[in-house]
Target: DUF1490 domain-containing protein
Amino acid sequence: MIKWNTIGKVACGFLIGTAGVKVLSSKDAKKCYTHLTAAAYRCKDTVMETYTSIKENCQDIDADAKAINEERYAKEREQEIADAKAVLERSQAESANA
Model:
């Protein structure tokens, strides 16, 4: 038994598909695709500018943070040296008094 309903659906799909190809390849459709592609490129350019700006800011923050840490470590080393000299002077003074 032939299912005419199924054959009708297949034929209708074929006709719609053929008409769809014609519509999608028309001059107006191509013009629309061109404008959409141009908009996508503009969007990409904007995103890349934002990315570059954020990247530069992050690099500046990183450099400043490293400089702050280097200064802090230098101060800590100076304090350790000063503490060691104070301990040494105290021990020398105690040994001289003894």
